[in-house]
Amino acid sequence: MEVIVKNNPKDLGRAAGIKTAELINEAIRKDGEAHVILATGASQFETLNQLIEQEVDWSKVTMFHLDEYIDLPETHPASFRKYLRERFLNKVSPLKSFYLIDGEADPEEERQRLGELIKKHPIHVALVGIGENGHLAFNDPPADFETEEPYLIVNLDADCRGQQLNEGWFGSIDEVPKKAISMSVRQILKSEVIICSAPDARKAPAVQKAIEGPVSNLVPASILQSHPNCMYYLDKDSAKLLS
């Protein structure tokens, strides 16, 4: 475990984005291609802004992402497919391939489709965040730490849905979907390197529990303590409760 604390979200994102590009380029040199997982949400704004500025041969990169709401159109402002197209895919040269989660497809068929695809693409580097409720991807507490299924259909708890509302993605709590397709905890842990970006004071309690508390499915992100190569990128606000 490595914890890097920066002054503010912009500095955090700059450092995380530069490190992510280094890891992608290292994978390309080693294996001829790189397989990455990208996260979405407010915590990733600055990291992705920096990543798209780096020198990377994107034609050798395959991308997966962590989660998507079920039955939310891609045109909706909260759609993670929309987020990734606008903030990443449209701003870099074409990737070798990318696999977006289609939340409007049959959830079970989509879950299985993505599971078969990611099994063929061992992940070199994964970008993740920590939810205010301690979630990892959309694995809300109590998270399933046992399943080997790469993707799951999950229920979103009240805290998770409240975070999405408070971040401005939805106009009311009733608009926030109650279900999503999420990459599983064990699938995330199969990544060679994990970059966890978690800025902002509202994340401080969850960050403290995830890094310094016991590993528990009641704080799903705490499982990252068990990963041999996880780097946390925090700002002073999100790190303020760490001892």
Question: Please, could you describe this protein's structure?
Answer:
With 243 residues, the protein is an alpha/beta fold. The chain has a single domain (2-235), classed as Rossmann fold (3-Layer(aba) Sandwich). The chain contains seven helices and ten strands. The strands form two sheets. Strands 1-10-9-6-2-3-5 form a seven-stranded parallel sheet, with helices on both faces. Helix 7 (204-212) links the parallel strand 9 and strand 10. Helix 1 crosses helix 2.
Offer a concise description of the structure.
With 243 residues, the protein is α/β, with parallel strands linked by helices. The protein has helices spanning 9-31, 45-51, 80-87, 107-119, 158-166, 185-189, 204-212, and strands spanning 2-6, 34-38, 61-65, 67-69, 97-99, 125-128, 151-155, 179-183, 193-198, 230-235. 30% of the residues lie in helices and 19% in strands.
How helical, in percent, are the residues? 25-40%
User: Could you tell me the radius of gyration in angstroms?
Assistant: 16 Å
> What's the CATH C level?
Alpha Beta
Q: List the total number of helices.
A: 7
Q: What is the beta-strand fraction?
A: 15-25%
Instruction: Extract low-pLDDT stretches.
Output: none
CATH architecture: 3-Layer(aba) Sandwich
Largest sheet, strands/sense/barrel: 7 strands, parallel
